[in-house]
Amino acid sequence: MPRMDSFVEYTVELLEPLGPVQARSMFGGWGLYFGGRMFGLIIQGQLYLKTDDVTRPAFEAEGCRPFIYQSRGKEQPMSYWTPPTDAEDDGRRLLPWARRAVEASNRAAMKKAAKKAPAAKKKPAAKKKPVRRS
């Protein structure tokens, strides 16, 4: 496993008030996890936080930018956005944005679980009566 660089270590320290945050190496960057769910991404020295339809407007209003990658010659935006500039180096200001990211991550997991759940539970098969032999 690659050794964390100083920016990843620093970011994890800033997020300590959130609770136990883990950083895992992935795709040339780092995934940030809380409670087993990814809520953040660090790539090329930039922190991105998970957003959804509920939280994205707040990120947009603060002038934050989405993480965009190139795939097959097209730009593909992801649901991870930079925190506001004034929160990037201030743990106190970063904390509410990180909480929003954790909440978005939890909502995404709940949506995914709901899609996997069967639409209607099937009735259990009727038990056959044992045959009596005389």
From TrEMBL:
TfoX N-terminal domain segment(s): 13-104
Biased composition (Basic residues): 109-134
Region (Disordered): 105-134
Cited InterPro entries: TfoX-like (IPR047525), TfoX_N (IPR007076)
Signal sequence region: none
UniProt superkingdom: Bacteria
Name the UniProt record assigns to this protein: TfoX domain-containing protein
Organism: Corallococcus coralloides (strain ATCC 25202 / DSM 2259 / NBRC 100086 / M2)
Organism lineage string: Bacteria, Pseudomonadati, Myxococcota, Myxococcia, Myxococcales
